[in-house]
UniProtKB/TrEMBL annotation:
Keywords: Disulfide bond, Secreted. It comes from Myripristis murdjan. This is Intestinal mucin-like protein. GO terms for cellular component: extracellular region. Residues 15-102 form the CTCK domain. Disulfide bonds join 29-78, 40-94, 44-96.
Length: 124
């Protein structure tokens, strides 16, 4: 299993492949044994910074995702005793891939208010 390291991201937090063992459940059927299920996790070199040349903020976004995978098939046992084949995606390699930069769902953009604080002076 190979994972590509991105410059600027700490190695421990960089995009990498992880793995867990699970039973696959699908439409009331379950794998008779645990299946090795690799996944991608970690950080990529994503940033927002001011560009003096463009006189604006510029963003670069990327996410950790599968860059190589294959289909694997496992038999699932159903409640009625039937065995059915089920094909799933098996991650083999992870890397950082460019993606669109978006704001989190439901987050409202607020305009910054400018105001002056007035100091209250007690009159004697």
């Amino acid at each position: 299993m190979l994972c590509l390291f991105q410059k600027g991201v700490e190695k421990e937090k960089a995009c990498k492949i992880g793995s867990m063992r699970i039973h696959i459940l699908h439409k009331g059927c379950r794998s008779t044994r645990e299946v090795d299920m690799p996944y991608c996790e970690g950080s990529c070199n994503t940033y927002t910074k001011y560009s003096e040349k463009a006189s604006t903020m510029q963003q670069s976004c990327s996410c950790c995702q599968e860059s190589r995978s294959s289909n694997r098939t496992v038999d699932l046992k159903c409640l009625n005793g039937d065995m059915v084949p089920y094909t799933y995606v098996h991650v083999e390699e992870c890397s950082c891939a460019k993606t669109a930069c978006t704001h989190p769902a439901g987050r409202l953009t607020r305009k910054r208010r400018s105001f002056t604080l007035r100091r209250s002076v007690d009159r004697i």
